[in-house]
Task: structure prediction
Amino acid sequence: MRLLGYAAYYDPKGDDEYLLEKVVASRGILLTRDLHLYRRALKHGVRAFYVEGTSFYEQFWSVAREFKLRLEVDPRCSFCPKCGGKIREAKGDEVAGIIHPSTLERYGEFWVCTSCGKVYWKGAMWRSMNKVLEKIRSGVSLSR
Ligand SMILES: [Zn+2]
Result:
């Protein structure tokens, strides 16, 4: 979600009460696989969406379809998957010393999180992410 440029907050350990308060405070939408929590949210007038599917792909597809997500990874409007900070472009010499020299040599474009400092490039994760998005865009069923 963050890679696609959507501000997201993730907390697998937060209790129901806390999560609902957080959603209201941020004027966000609760995405959950917990039917009990989902019903509770609706009862309290909190915007909520029950995520369908058991695999990551199914769940992602369920959310993407519901919210008509922009299915493109654009680093200029992405948020850090790790901390949710804003990502900006970085020059090669800026990230030298942080990342492996072979990575630096292989990839010309880098992005760095302005909040936690994590460096990103179009590596394996990026490619697999785009593959998933391509499948979703072309309407291929991901249920198997
Ligand atoms: Zn970060």
